[in-house]
Amino acid sequence: MNITEKILAKASGKKVVHPGEIIDANLDMVMIHDLTGPLAVEAFKKIGTPKVWDSKKVVVILDHQVPAESVKAAELHKTMREFAKTQNLKIYDVGRGGICHQVMPEQGHVKPGDVIIGADSHTCTYGAFGAFATGVGSTEAAAAMATGKIWFKVPSTIKIEVKGKFKKYITPKDLILNIIGTLSVDGAIYKAAEFAGPTIKAMTTAGRMTLCNMAVEFGAKNGIIAPDETTTEFLAGRIDKMPDTKALQSDKDAQYERTVEFDVAKLEPQIACPSSVDNVKPVSEIGDVPIEQAFIGSCTNGRLEDLRIAAQVMKGKKVKDGVRALVIPASQEVWKQANDEGLLQLFTEAGAIVCGSACGPCLGGHIGLLAAGESCVATSNRNFIGRMGSTQAKVYLASPATVAASAIAGKIVSAAEVKA
Amino acid sequence: MESKIRAKAAVLGNNIDTDVILPGKYLILVDPYDLAQHALAGLDEHFVDKAKGGIIIVGGKNFGCGSSREQAPLALKYSGVKCVIAESFARIFYRNSINIGLPVIECKGIHDAVKEGDELAVDLEAGKVQNLTTKNTFEATKLPPSIMEILTDGGLIENLRKRMNKK
Ligand code: SF4
Q1: Count of CB atoms within 10 A of residue A19's CB?
Q2: Residues A273 and A257 reside in one and the same domain
Q3: Which of A34, A274, A349, A371 is 20 to 30 A from A361, comparing alpha carbons?
Q4: Which residues, other chains included, contact B45 with Cβ-Cβ below 8 Å and sequence gap of 6+?
Q5: Last residue of a domain, one of A218, A247, A263
Q6: Are residues A96 and A179 in the same domain?
Q7: pLDDT tens digits for A319-334?
Q8: Mean pLDDT in residue range A296-301
């Protein structure tokens, strides 16, 4: 079996499972946030069970509309706080956590081999730690909170084998954009995407999270990477006991629907143009695209190593007049580390604004929205029509290095161009 | 919920994402009828008027891709959408729709065979879609009994309540 099948077999009490089989899986963790949580709470109340199945296994994170941008949002937050209190759940309130997908692994709620659902599509991020993790809707999250179980169809798996060493300023974000451009937005619909090969082995936890985070953008049910020493190192001190990672490696004779190979040695900076995540081109091919906003942050690329590379590009330079540059560390922990390293100071001096850890403009619900006719280059994961505000605005997706460089140049350029 | 549905078709394209079905700024709305006022706001301002009184959406590939927001199928359901037929669905949208009692059915070849305003008849249980205007019939993927049961009960919550009471 491959790693996804092994996890699902164990969670459903079976020796083996096969793609297409419908199983009932026991859950290790359920996550809800401030936008999907209120509907889940309402549905949970309708079920009529007084208590969640296990209060240690449900986590509430306020991250989308925080701090509350309207009275309506404030009321939803209040609902979530009250629910967490009566159910005795861990809640990461304003200033205590950050973006859900960063907080979950950082605070030790993710272990290799776990089955995790979250009422958010980017829950697939936790596959970076060798967990089976996928997004669900509010009603399903409510049912899961009541029962601790969920049904899944065992997915067939696409193996994505990656080799080669990244050139300077080329990052895992460029790789995943390239993968999505190649496979298209429905390339892995209903399937698992397993990332493997020497490049993945050598990749940091942050980079692996960027890959798994965007698995849903090419339709995958989950993205997954076999846990190894890098995983163990990151989770040390965050979880009680590291599970045996040997049992979570895909077998030599594991079955895959197909294997797709990528070599990053020659990879150029990539960009997803409006308004589809698979509309991907090398930055060098898009011509002159002036921007009004540059956004560095989100659960895709708001981690310390993302901020470091952006800072490296911006060092000693100024954000171009007429451009708003927003920097949003993915969590309080990242914020503190970035602050200690002087990165936030550097961004501020360059003319960027550093905001509190939250989703920010990523989903167009809170700060940093776009007006009609404006363009933004962002490190986030979606560029659909209307995603960041006006339906007449344009969103381009790129790596932190490219976004930082573009903020300096006032138009979309690669880091190499700014640093030359 | 009825297993047989009849209404006029509204034809949409491939990869219709949840950001156009319900833009993020409306996610703080809670009442499904308020959500319904903004159904497909990212794509077609007049959709809500069109859907009133009942409509069947015909989509292309990967319908409902993007976020896990259940508010997207909720907005469609309460705006008057009786069923969504598509070449394929994004998985979270598919599960969400079933869970809130909005019938969704996969039917290969349907997208090119239906024009805006055609009269359609869907039989969920039999897995059949008929275009009454052109008099063509299509085989759709039959919904398995467990999913039919959730739909008949009106959604996952009602279904779960029934099952839990039995225990
Ligand atoms: S940062 Fe963006 S993609 Fe990530 S959870 Fe927040 S809104 Fe969703």
Answers
A1: 18
A2: no
A3: A349
A4: none
A5: A263
A6: yes
A7: 999 999 999 999 999 9
A8: 98
Residues A52 and A148 placed together within one structural domain of the fold: yes
Mean pLDDT across chain B, nearest whole number?
94
Q: How many CB pairs under 8 A join A and B?
A: 129
Mean pLDDT score, A75-91: 98
User: Which whole number is the average pLDDT over A59-66?
Assistant: 97
Among A48, A64, A385, the residue with its CB nearest the CB of B42 is: A385
Please judge whether A121 and B67 are an interchain contact, meaning their C-beta atoms are less than 8 angstroms apart.
yes
Distance, CA of B122 to CA of B137 (rounded, Å) = 10
A363 CA to chain B: closest CA distance, Å? 6
Q: Predicted confidence band at A28 (pLDDT cuts at 50, 70, 90)? A: very high
CB of A380 sitting under 6 A from ligand 1: yes
Of B111, B117, B118, give the one whose Cα is nearest residue B138: B111
d(CA A307, CA A181): 25
Q: A232 and A377: one domain?
A: no
Q: Which residues of B touch A43 (CB under 8 A)?
A: 157
Protein residue closest via CA to atom 4 of ligand 1: A299
- A203, A234, A263 — which closes off a domain? A263
Query: Which helix H or strand E contains A208, and what residues bound it?
Result: helix A205-213
- In chain A, the number of structural domains is 2
pLDDT at A242: 96
Whether residues A58 and A112 share a domain: the answer is: yes
Q: Please indicate, yes or no, whether residues A202 and A338 belong to a single structural domain of this protein.
A: no
- Give contacts of B24 with chain A, Cβ < 8 Å: 363-365, 386-387
The reply to whether ligand 1 has any atom less than 6 angstroms from the CB of A299 is yes
* d(CA A420, nearest CA chain B) in Å: 37
User: Is there a contact between B90 and A219 if contact means CB atoms under 8 Å apart?
Assistant: yes
Q: What is the pLDDT of residue B1?
A: 65
Among B residues 43-72, those touching chain A with beta carbons less than 8 Å apart = 43, 61-62, 65-71
Helix A37-47 / helix B156-166 crossing angle, nearest 10 deg: 30
Mean of all residue pLDDT scores within chain A: 97
Helix (H, G, I), strand (E, B) or coil at A277: coil
DSSP state of A96: T
| CATH label of the domain that carries residue A96 | 3.30.499.10
Q: What is the mean pLDDT of residues A295-319?
A: 98
How confident is the model at residue B147, as a pLDDT?
86
Q: What is residue B165's predicted lDDT score, i.e. its pLDDT?
A: 77
Res A245: pLDDT: 95
Residue A367, domain extent? 269-419
User: Tokens 């179980």 label which residue?
Assistant: A149
Q: How far is CA B100 from CA A39, A130, A279, in A?
A: 11, 31, 32
Q: Which ipTM did the prediction report?
A: 0.92
**Inter-chain touch A143–B160, beta carbons under 8 Å:** yes
Regarding whether A33 and A88 lie in a shared domain, the answer is yes
Per-domain boundaries in chain B: 4-165
pLDDT: which is higher, A22 or B136: B136
Please compute the mean of the pLDDT values over residues A32-54 and round it to a whole number.
96
Nearest CA in chain A to B144: A22
